[in-house]
Amino acid sequence: MYRLISFLAGLQNQFINFLRFTVFLVMVWIGGLKAFQYEADGIVPFVANSPVMSFFYSKKAPEYQQYKNPEGKTIQKNVDWHHVNGTYLFSYGLGAVIVGIGLCVLLGIWFPKIGLLSGILTFGMSLVTLSFLITTPETFVSNLGGDFPTPYFGFPYLSASGRLVIKDIIMLGSGLIFLADSAIRIMLSVSR
């Protein structure tokens, strides 16, 4: 049993690098999707309700609720509204930033100073994303009524949007791991 534990302990650096690769993959994939209309439409409730990001849009919340394109369906008047709102332009920029952070995360495998920066950026990005749980009404299940009283709505009942956002707590922790690992590697290189 000790040999197995010792073997696993010796893989810590490889596991951290694997974590870097998985975060890179998620960021490049999600960041890349920001170039597509359906993804850009999907982030509008988060951005429009955020006190940190809402200034990127020309329209104020909750006006966007009238112009939602359901995934898999495109309505021209909604697309036109999103063009005026700045939805697509902002999404392209955000996607580029997310892909850039993802690339920094991957480069952190070989370059500890870039890894340190990627840890800070991943942590910061995740804090902003997690703030959507507080600022975006759609992150919790709404009480839409029905044939009988809805018992599961509001906090702590996460909607699909909320379940998407809460997963960023994993990114938050990953950013701290990248930060600490890179700091150790920088310190070791200076002490040599």
Mean pLDDT: 95
Number of alpha- plus pi-helical segments: 9
Portion of residues within helices: 55-70%
Provide the low-confidence segments as ranges.
none
Distance between the termini: 34 Å
Structural class: mainly alpha
The whole-angstrom Rg is 20 Å
Task: State the major sheet.
Answer: none
Shape summary: globular
Q: What's the order of the H and E elements? A: HHHHHHHHH
User: How many β-strands, per DSSP?
Assistant: 0
- Strand percentage lies at under 5%
Can you characterise this structure?
This protein has 192 residues and is an all-alpha fold. Helix content is 67%, strand content 0%. The protein is built from nine helices and no strands. The protein has helices spanning 2-9, 12-33, 37-42, 44-49, 76-85, 87-107, 112-135, 160-166, 168-191. α2 (12-33) crosses α9, α6 runs antiparallel to α7 and α7 (112-135) runs antiparallel to α9. It starts with a helix and ends with a helix. The model has no long low-confidence stretch (mean pLDDT 95).
